Amino acid sequence: MHRIEGYVIVSSDGMIADASGQMPDAIHNDADQKYFQSGLDQAAVVVHGRHSHEGGLRSAGRKRLVLTRLIATLAPDPAHPNSLLWNPAGCPLEEAIAALGVGDGIVAVIGGTEVFTMFLPFYDAFHLSRAARATIPGGRPVFDEVGPHVTPEDVLARHGLKPGPRRDLDQRAGVTEVTWEREARR
Predict the structure, then answer these.
(1) pTM of the predicted protein model
(2) Which residue of 1, 74, 146, 180 sits 20 to 30 Å from the alpha carbon of 135, by its own alpha carbon?
(3) What average pLDDT does the chain have?
């Protein structure tokens, strides 16, 4: 069994990156990075798109699936020896995880927009950090549905997740985290 958990930090307007796809310094926060890296340390596999990557000292040792449409099913990732390139249209998630040699554990989804959106029906938990003092005009949203009148919280609630308590990760910087969870599946 795999537990699927998402990890993200967003601006006050629900963006994860600027128009070019880069994470701006405005939402980069050391306390959030510590929380994020700690979560990834518990994961059996990290899942992200071709332009997302968590960085950090331990990232090269993590098993990962990198989503791409450039292949039919699965292929070795020439850039990262512990990674597989994965086309979800040609290969189910469980098969891709098995090909990595990973057993049970947490599947940590870390972006980008299309990847976060694809997993909406499957999240057991979603760790939503927010940099309340940052905006990214014209940026890329965490989920496709996010826009001027739709927040990431609206999207998570529509997909059956419920918020836990808010935690201050960095009160001075206005960075908080809320873990949204789905009721246990039967």
Answers:
(1) 0.95
(2) 180
(3) 94
